[in-house]
Specification:
heterodimer, A: alpha/beta, Rossmann fold, six-stranded mixed β-sheet, 17 helices, B: ABC transporter involved in vitamin B12 uptake, BtuC, two-stranded antiparallel sheet, 13 helices, 4 strands
Amino acid sequence: MELLRMEHIHKSFFGVKVLDDVSLTVKAGEIHALLGENGAGKSTLMNILSGVYTRDEGTVTFDGKELPNGSISASEGAGIAFVHQELNIFNDLEVYENLFLGKEITGFGGKLDKKAMIREAEQLFAEMGVPLQPRALAGDLVTGAKQVLEIAKALHSRAKLIILDEPTTALSTSEIEHFFGLIRSLKEKGTAFIFISHKMPEIFEIADEYTVLRNARFISTGKIADVTPEQITRDMVGETFANEDVYEKRELGDVVLKADNLSGQGFSDVSFECRKGEILGFTGLQGAGCSEVLQTIFGALPSGGGTLTVHGSRGAQGNIHLAMKEGIGMIPANRKENSVIPDMTLLENTYLSRHTIDTKNPSINKKNEQVRFEGFKKTLNIKANKSDDPIVSLSGGNQQKVILARWLDTDAQILLMDNPTQGIDVGAKEEIYRLILKLAESGKTIIVNTLEIPELKKIADRCIVFYHGNIVADLPHSEIEENKVMMYSTGALK
Amino acid sequence: MSEKLKKFWSGYNFIVVFLIIFIAYIIINGKATSWTTIKNIFLHSAILGTIAIGQGLIVLTGDIDLSVGSSFVLAGGFAIMFFNKVNSIFLLLICALVLGAAFGFLNGLMVGKFKMPSFIVTLATMLIYRSISQYVMNTMGWTRYSVDAQLSRYRALFMFGNGSFLTISLLAIVWLAVAIFMIYMTNSTKYGKRIYALGSNAKGALLAGVNVVRTKISVYVICGLTVGLATFLKIAKDTSFDPATSGKNYELYSIAAVVIGGISMSGGKGKILGIIFGTMSFTLIDKIITALGMNALLNDTVKGVILLAAVGLQMIQKRSRD
């Protein structure tokens, strides 16, 4: 029985098509995998379904009735629940309170009928066959149990279709098994699921049908049983477009950074080497551990074992200051939160780091600093008026260049860049790539972590792929292909 | 031109606030205004002003110190007892500074190292420090801590506390010297920039290599030093401390001076120079109330209203920028 039919959905943001004639059909009791790369349009489509966004064109029919456009309450009322990747659980409330939030059972004078709510919660958990305790504090639950609680919330609101957005990212292997068991049993009872995931083994384990989106367009749909991971990956990635090659092979120097069985938060047993002048790419799905490895090398996260060798000697771990003295710099992900000092000028943002390791002279010679800054402004092509302007007056790309200048100012020889082109427009991205190549040519060693594989194809000498906190592939430049990297990072290839 | 004016307004509106209050004072005071009344503004701002500078540094990092008034009294009592033993002005100064720094260090340790919320930590030490001071005085059977007038160095101490240079009170000169040093420190030293960076974006500062824990602790120690210095100034001026009344509400008045001085309570924004004007604005309000012959009990009402007005002005400016 057909449950959901989305037909010819169009959506634009500020004149940019984010969904171009996309259709999706889901039957009752079906687990439907929705696939596509970041930015393919999956989230937008799901947000239209759940009423968060309005659709520009097209129809959505659910359970035989057409859904009104852009109404969250209508979608919820019809029986559509969206379990977001960031779980929506209130840690300070008890499990049953989370379940009944906003739909509490009340008695005389608005007094909460706790007994009735707890009884109903117990009943629901028994029906689901899950060991949740209504009176437990939600904050004490492990992530897997919170995920189950989200499902319970959806069922409690009589959802017929539950959208799961990368539900397994934060779960351990055994939690995933339990979670899948629950989904299968609900499916038997007729609940349908839309399952958004990048992990091929999971999709092939749990899903019945699939739909692939690419670049805002519908690409393919069908039964999972009829396809292979390779075929799906090809659909997701499309023709690997010829890269306007800025990459040129360079002579590399000695090994300057070496990790042996490094472990830490979210990764374990990571070993690799990096040579002077090399651009090493890190990639993997969100939560695969790439970013954590970089932060651990920089000392921003505690190390859980293993050794680091920097310039031939044992590197310090868990101490940013010592890492900086060893010549390591890091451009963290999420510029706004982790690197830009918003109340300070370009100049102050630039010299801040150098001054934490160069403390010979306590006072600042502003003229000297300005001369240094002008140098960086020129090499990095920072488009700014005066060095005394606040950094927030610059565009994202130029802010990022100032942060890059900060680390060049410390004379760091090893630069760790965590998603350096995040939130930067296309033109500025190109510029950042060129700068990275230029820096490598001048002998800097650079590790770039990015989710965007075409980025790596443009700049990286080598690419290390992470899956579930481990290195699964170490590919030379010639083998960096979107298809292949995608297969490794989704676990389709091991 | 209007662009420049806007920049001046956003950076220096504390001067405008001060001038408005100052002109109001001159008008109300009328013929009674003289050089003496004006230089008294400096004198009566010196002690609170010194503490407010320390408070300002802490507020710049995004934290707060509610214990300054109590540390002031506790250090004051002990320093007086110490002076009565050693009879040395220099050692009195050292003692006051060391005590102030130690009390500040305790706060800093808990806030910086153990990551406890500064509001609660300093609220607790505010209660503790003043209570100890009162208890010690009580067990000694005194009604206040007083410098022994029989001591040979008593006169010299009193002369310093009430002396002047070129008609300007020595206390005010010490205050302004501290202010000039702190202005230099915040504007032109590496350490000063770390304070701003920490207050503006603590995570960003950490990942840029700033030692966040050490910087936080040090700022509390510096604030303690300004409290210690203020203690010394107060002993020299009045030769006594009364734990029940001395430094009462100084934590709140110092925060008010900092806020009127244009320093953002969320940290990272503002100038030490503003605190000078903020403190003087605050002192002037006292004087206006006296000049008007108003009931002194209304003092805090007026101060509160002025504080709200000053913050209101800053909000308007902030909104026009956003």
